[in-house]
Amino acid sequence: MPEFLKLVPPQQAVEQFLAAMPDPTPETISLETQFAEGRVLAETFHAPHPLPPFTRSSVDGFAVRAADTFGASPSLPAYLTIAGEIEMGKQAALAIQPGQAALVHTGGMIPTGANAVVMLEDTQTIRAGEVEVHKPAADGENILREGEDVATGEELFSYGTLLRPQEIGGLIAYGYTQIRVYRNPTVGILSSGDEIVPPGYEPGPGQVRDINSYTLGAMLRLHGADPRVYGIVHDSFDELESAVRRAFTENDMILITAGSSVSTRDITADVIDSLGSPGVLFHGLALRPGKPTILALAEGKPVIGLPGNPVSAIVSAGLCVLPVLRKLRGLGQVSFKAAVQATLSQNIPSIAGREDYLPVRLEHGSEGITAVPVFGRSNLIFTLVRADGLVRIPAAVTGLTGGSPVDVILFS
Amino acid sequence: MPEFLKLVPPQQAVEQFLAAMPDPTPETISLETQFAEGRVLAETFHAPHPLPPFTRSSVDGFAVRAADTFGASPSLPAYLTIAGEIEMGKQAALAIQPGQAALVHTGGMIPTGANAVVMLEDTQTIRAGEVEVHKPAADGENILREGEDVATGEELFSYGTLLRPQEIGGLIAYGYTQIRVYRNPTVGILSSGDEIVPPGYEPGPGQVRDINSYTLGAMLRLHGADPRVYGIVHDSFDELESAVRRAFTENDMILITAGSSVSTRDITADVIDSLGSPGVLFHGLALRPGKPTILALAEGKPVIGLPGNPVSAIVSAGLCVLPVLRKLRGLGQVSFKAAVQATLSQNIPSIAGREDYLPVRLEHGSEGITAVPVFGRSNLIFTLVRADGLVRIPAAVTGLTGGSPVDVILFS
After folding, report:
1. What would the pLDDT profile of B309-340 be if each residue is shown by its tens digit?
2. What's the pTM value of the predicted model, to 2 decimals?
3. Could you count the other beta carbons within 10 Å of the beta carbon of residue B392?
4. How close A32 comes to chain B (CA, Å)?
5. Which residues of chain B make contact with A203, given a CB cutoff of 8 A?
6. Distance (Å) from the C-alpha of residue A163 to the closest C-alpha of chain B?
């Protein structure tokens, strides 16, 4: 049996675990940029040219020399000769001489000589070839200068960046249509326990279907991993050890959900500890649900033992597995967690020294949003099916009072 | 030209638009449940049997008749005969007679006759075949009754449910390994504008690469749509009309990002209005960035015109396209939006009567989280690359004061 360490709060355990984990060196793959959303960039890009690549108008109007519009007003317009129109998508074919203006569209190139654009609504064209300007333009007004957004040589993106739609756009703006991203980490998932049967199997008396492999698989896929379900292993050290070792060899991380009997849990912990050094770093967390979580490292590879109870497995995976997955993906940790602010509907007791996560349903009412606890003594999966998110009750607190404000972290 | 309606706030326009949209009748496809996360269920399920399917123990301990433990304490234990051990995953093979107990593991079946479980730590076995109980057990203590989570016939899931990991688990708990889900809506995306060139093309003077098709495509894929990029169409009514009509016929919704010149925008609006009735419902929203948004319905199909500016296109798509996509997917609207609470770093002016969305970067400091506006006069895509999310400045407000609390909606 591994050494049992004191129960530590989940955040602290995860921080220490991440610090003990070696920096990953994920393989990279080449991907079309347009399909790379949700991937992690494996290259660093510097701007080969400025953005905008040319000085352009931000409005529809007339490109002018600002000095020519000095003091212009509706009663005393500046009269300028129209030198022509700037065609979209073409080099500005003319130059503005003093006393001249050129019609320009939003995004059109500012012609040589001009240094401002007067908006169309501040002008009037009465005679052909001439425009009345009713408002003075300052130098640079309504103009986007070349390089204003990005200067040449500026770092555009660095490796380790999560690609959101805007990063896809930024890469494509520079013509990077094919990029290198990290391969999604593979995660082997095993279930142990003699009472567990596969989903397609009709459970006999005392048996339950394996659902953890699939809730965890879905969760992992939603967070950028490539899960592989290895199925159910029976309660024997040798059988479990050989299945776990195979999954361990074939993946970047493995998750084992332990059956609920003591002997299965013990065997699981022993097998995890046998995989390699340093072995089990945390066995049990000051967390509910999710206490029987095991965090281990074997030859630098994360091996996480999760509770067999499906709700505990999901809560513990959210707190422990997802941060480890981010590290494996080459991403930094999340510093900001979005939450819905709500009012708790009733008192909730909690034990000091243990972090509690309470599933809640959100309800709109005249008083705003209420968080209603979803109780389920049995703590089966339907507790979470009925919930919108979780409320964290910190370890230092002995409960929450009905009517107090709470932050609800929504399930993704 | 379509009739220009008054500029309305985006939420109001979207609500009216959704009300005008017919209820979708999405096609369904069959999918393996384990790979269905993020899909929308197209069937309704009622429980064919209770969950838990049998009465089971929630702890490791001894199954007893509660009455036999009445008054038990460490100094005055109740002595019970051990009738045997309940094997995991098997029918409980014995029945508990008065004065008897059976060893049971967490999740194990409660044998006939027993109505409570005494936790292992509240017992002691000194003589073989006998257990000392040190604590009385109440009727039902540490027992999960058959059907406590779900009763037979109860509705488990209804069509229109978004499948999260827990729903996958709930379906599999009942052995539903293959389910019907809605096909993801297809969305045709077109770009208009003579200055726009494809991503792989080297832009000439005055030209810019098409990035909106790809930022929007990525955004749509992340939200359960199947986007199809139709490419760039030049500024001619006939050319645009024929391309748009083809995309309109082939998809559940179409998006057209207009080029930035007035003539392109006019042609785009005219083409959208020509597709069918009722045509353009909203042309221009009280929104910045994103004002030149067009919301149209043609023969019941949504056709949305988005601004050519990439930041405006993303903001407007987030507010207008995603709710429409939810309806097309057969989902209800989101009632709760998770946000990060932060303190605004500086004063931000805003015009009353218009909803402003301000890109911000989040910074951790000793005082908590600060939202720092990301300015970009040019409003190019890199403004959003540098931002973590958006702060909404309501229409009734003329600006936000530095130091005031703001809700930041993170980009997904």
Report:
1. 899 999 999 999 999 999 999 999 988 899 99
2. 0.92
3. 19
4. 11
5. 53
6. 9
